[in-house]
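Notebook entry, structure prediction.
Reason for the run: the old model in the group folder had no record of what sequence produced it. Starting over properly, with the input documented here first.
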Amino acid sequence: MPQEPSHEAHRREADKNTKDNPVCCAVLIVSDTRTLETDRGGALIVEHLTQAGHQIASLEIVKDEQGTIRERLKTWCADPEIQVILTTGGTGVSRRDITTDVVRGLLSFELQGFGELFRMLSYEQVKSAAMLSRAIAGLVIGSEESGGDTFIFALPGSTNAVETAMSNLVIPQLPHLVWERMKEDS
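New structure, fully documented this time:
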């Protein structure tokens, strides 16, 4: 009988664990023009997370301002209950698109495969325009004083991009990512 690949066994174990312990997430919308009422990207992230059984600890919107984005993310990373932060907006190449730079400055390490896979999937939809995305993900390693480890995913603001990232990358692997960090504490 063939042995199950280890990534599948890990994913199955993680899924089993998160049924009893849903992942606690915060969602940050970065936009100079949208409001909570007019933004669709953040709402789509929340929809995907809740449908997958995860909890939403906070949903906020901030302007494309480096200090404001950094302070909100640092506050959430210091909250031991929040395991994952997802941002939407500010990942392009315009002068005001600074979310990626702020997130990268907070990360202990980057999940390089996330950005690579996201752009690969985006290429199938928007062809060479996929290179304009600077979507990024990684981990902020916390301390006992400052809270636990926190994954951050910085997604573009377009609903098509959010749908691609959430459906194909984030939701399928979120329990596995969190479980991998939690099991080290056991």
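Summary: The two ends are 31 Å apart (CA to CA).
The old model has been moved to the deprecated folder.
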